Amino acid sequence: LYKRARAGEIKGFTGIDDPYEPPLNPEVECRTDQEELQESVAKVLSKLEELGYLSKALEVQSV
Q: What is the C-alpha to C-alpha distance for residues 58 and 49, in angstroms, rounded to an integer?
């Protein structure tokens, strides 16, 4: 998609000809520069569980 957007085939593409606008009040914020990957993943899974998209968040294990 980025290749097509750079070629002008797709207009209004975020990061190409449309600026990225960070959300004002994100539901989940992962500070990957300040926390371990497992913590970020756990935050996302927990939010998905809270919203009903997952029945139970899996335990995140080190890789």
A: 10
Backbone angles phi, psi at 54, to 5 degrees: -125, 140
CA separation for the pair 2, 16 (Å, rounded): 8
> pLDDT digit string (tens) for 8-55?
999 999 889 998 889 999 999 999 999 999 999 999 999 999 999 998
- Tell me the pTM: 0.61
d(CA 9, CA 17): 11
Q: Where do the structural domains in the chain lie, given as residue ranges?
A: 1-26, 31-63
